[in-house]
Amino acid sequence: MKYDVIIIGSGPAGANAALELSRSDLHILVIEKESLPRKKPCGGAMPPSVSELIRVDISKVVKNRTGFLESYYNYEDRVMERFLESEAPIMIDRSEFDYYLLKQAAVEGSGKVELLDNSRVVSVDEKEDEVRVALESGGKYSARYLIGADGALGKTASCVGLMKKRKFATSIDAEIITDEQYYDTHSDRLHINYFCLPYGYGWIFPKEKNRFSCGVGTWGKPLDIRAEINRFIKRSIPENCIKNIQISGYPIPVFQGTRRLSTKRVLLTGDAAALVDPVRGEGIRFALHSGKIAAAVILKLLRENKKPSDQSILTEYDKRVYEEIGKELKSQLFFQSLAFHHSPGMYYRKFVKREA
Known about the structure:
Blueprint: E1 2-8, H1 12-21, E2 28-31, E3 45-46, E4 62-65, E5 68-73, E6 76-82, E7 90-92, H2 94-108, E8 113-116, E9 121-126, E10 131-135, E11 140-148, H3 156-159, E12 168-178, H4 180-186, E13 189-194, E14 200-206, E15 211-218, H5 225-236, E16 242-253, E17 266-268, H6 284-303, H7 313-342, H8 344-352
Helix pairs in contact: 1-2, 1-6, 6-7, 7-8
């Protein structure tokens, strides 16, 4: 079956792209390899400014708002900072948040936005006048344009020859259920412990009642990451306060500078395009933003009835992503990232403690 746009992946980038396209007359297909709503390990902290990137009210899926940032340098040198009310991070559960955006897209699409879950893509084949997608189940679909929102290990980029020689950080996330007393004491703050493992950090983010996202990530050489998170949890949360722990690992694509993110008919978004802060690992905001840009570029081309040869998506999409996202990430890469990897103490003093 042929669609106007196929979106592979239902994370923030894919879901927000579907939402942006849903008010058009286009036929959209969202393909997700997991069963929806799918479990997604993620810290889930977002700046409140993300609401400007999403044209529906997300207050229903906000789990918590934090008032403080508590930072450490390898369990020492504590810094406590209060957020301005307008800048206080919001906490979400990615499983619920992503699915909420998808459902809103399906409702607004009035039957023209289809969701196909539990469907693993095995190939993406770009032709002159369409993009063809084949599934592991044998299903085949095609579209005029395709948005690759299938994450760091997705098929889209490799199938169309983009994002070669990627670099990944190692990360692992634990969902921790605590007793009420511990949660009530720590529910108002984000906890970040810089360099509690080599070239990385650990975090504890409060979500809904008695539940925390806790994890560690490293941008250095591979470590026994499971041993690292067990060590971090043991040193950070009293054992008698913990009721349950569920651990999941996942790769984080490392932003390595400006790279080609599109072909004539395929656009990469979010983690698939490595649009992730190269120091803090933040990716949700950039995923939402790139999905919004991808949808806008495709809508413009289709409304103006332009062929890819008339106005290459490469020029339109890549330019906007660089101007609106890439410049910020590039600055992080060439300033904070250098200090983070080569002078941890200086990084903490300058960028966390903000010493002169």
